[in-house]
Amino acid sequence: MNTKIKTLALLGLFALPSTVMAGDLSTTVNLTSDYTFNGVSQTDNDPALQASLDYAMDDGWYVGAWASNVDFGSGEDTWLEFDFYAGKYLELNDRVSLDAGIAYYTYHGDNASDEYYYPELYTKFGYTSSLGQSEVNFWYSWDYFGLDAGHYIAMVAHTFTVAEGHDIRVSFDRSTSTNKNKWSWDGDKSYNHYRAEYMTSWEGFDFNVTIEDTSMDTDLSDTRAVLSVSRTFNL
Description:
Elements: H1 3-15, E1 23-32, E2 36-37, E3 40-41, E4 48-57, E5 61-69, E6 80-91, E7 96-108, E8 118-129, E9 132-141, E10 151-163, E11 166-177, E12 190-202, E13 205-214, E14 224-234
Antiparallel strand pairs: 1-4, 1-14, 2-3, 4-5, 5-6, 6-7, 7-8, 8-9, 9-10, 10-11, 11-12, 12-13, 13-14
């Protein structure tokens, strides 16, 4: 996906008049103390300002764009991640849901940033019961970070309500590279990520407090607490 196509896609999403769209257009702004991706800091343990633009149609189809500052350290000048995604959400019955789509990750700022671009397919299953919301989620890329390496993530998660307006979500996921010679995690082909988060809302703002850790032993993936505050605006 070249720069011209990406620009046209984003401008087209902004330009769609809400009066002729059979769906909802919204934007979310998020401030977080650390942008972590599967437990690994993408901002060198520093805060991030993030924003998304999403259009959801009445039949479950959706498309969106998401951006965040990044800092990969080690003399890297890449400072922006800009992603695109599209998919469909289905309620298979009163309890089971399916969300499937494709995302495209892009990076900007360094001369080599465009070499990191990569696509990713995802499938997310949800199950609602009296005990809360359970999830089984999968992601797969055949060109992870532009290295022609396969990479997949498998996750299980559960969200339950502790009081009205107060939720806890716990999750476990495992990231695996199919080619350790092209991409490895701290010298290994895979690692585990553990996460527990508390979620609540107040005066239109969403608050999230997270404790997470990984099986890797690095400064960017050790035990940490992350605080996020976001707000969604319907356009």
